[in-house]
Amino acid sequence: MIKVASYNIRKSIGTDRRRQPDRIMKILAEIDADIVALQEVDRRFGERATTLSPDLIVDYTNYMPVRFGIREQSLGWHGNVLLVKKGIEVRNPQRIELPAFEPRGAVMADVVMGTTAMRVVGMHLGLLGNSRMKQADAIVTHLEKLEQHMPTVIMGDLNQWAEDGKCLLAFARHHDVIPLGPSFHSRRPMLQLDRIITSRDFKLESAGVHRTALARTGSDHLPVWASLSLQHAEAAA
Predict the structure, then answer these.
(1) Sheet containing 35-39: which strands, arranged edge to edge?
(2) Among residues of the chain, what percentage have pLDDT more than 70?
(3) In 10 A of CB 100, how many CB atoms?
(4) Residues 87, 34: Cα–Cα separation, whole Å
(5) What are the E-state strand segments in 66-193?
(6) Is the model's pLDDT at 233 over the cut of 60?
(7) Which of 49, 187, 206, 213 could pair with 73 as two cysteines, CB 3.0-4.6 Å apart?
């Protein structure tokens, strides 16, 4: 069983307008996923410094951040960060350039848990429908060009509220879009912006939106999660 989660932390600013990175750490502990994709971790302007200290993550959680080595003060790529539980091996971390009028990107890494290997993509798509479609196509195309096929989880804030949105259709051609429920706004969730999408190597065991009292104040988004099992275990090389 593998548990994954996605969370737009809005630069660690909660609905009480306080920036509290330690609160984000507590929410991640509540979820207790093996792999987490975070969005809006870095500040938007200037040096785009992270709002989550790598030392804070390592010292006070069971996670290690995947480093992409882009900006000295940043933790991820355009605010996208991957966290893996300590003991999970990370291979081939890379960033995916996305077409957009505003800065957008996605991050990807292969991870190994015991004898199981899988691929994880974290993303934050744009506000405009045409941009989201192009960005979804860019991610799918990037995955298709990779030499080795691996069971894959794609997750993040898609900014797509309509169920028939074209970016969802782009992913759904060869993947399963997991039904999760509304995650935005955290105080009164009405829109299903945050998504988890899997290759068809996975069997969905359970999934949902993390709706604790702490999560309702941690960000304007609620975290989403899914527990998955592999249809056929993928042996690590």
Answers:
(1) 63-65, 81-85, 35-39, 2-8, 224-230, 202-209
(2) 93
(3) 18
(4) 10
(5) 81-85, 89-97, 105-113, 116-124, 152-157, 175-177
(6) no
(7) 49
Pull the structure tokens for residue 228. 């998955």
The string of DSSP codes covering 103-132 is: --EEEEEEEEETTEEEEEEEEE--SSHHHH
Could you give the CA distance from residue 147 to residue 201 in angstroms, rounded to a whole number? 17
Residue 119 has pLDDT above 70, yes or no: yes
Predicted local distance difference test score (pLDDT) of residue 69: 65
Could you identify the residue written with the tokens 């291979």? 91
Q: What is the pLDDT of residue 235?
A: 54
Q: Which residue has the tokens 């604790």?
A: 212
Q: How confident is the model at residue 165 (pLDDT cuts 50, 70, 90)?
A: confident
Identify the burial level of 102 via C-beta atoms within 10 angstroms of its C-beta, where 0-12 means exposed, 13-18 middle and 19 or more buried: exposed
As given in the structure block, the two tokens for residue 50 are 């992270």
Closest CA to 146 of 123, 168, 120: 120
Going from the C-alpha of 193 to that of each of 6, 99, 142, 172, the distances in angstroms are: 11, 20, 23, 16
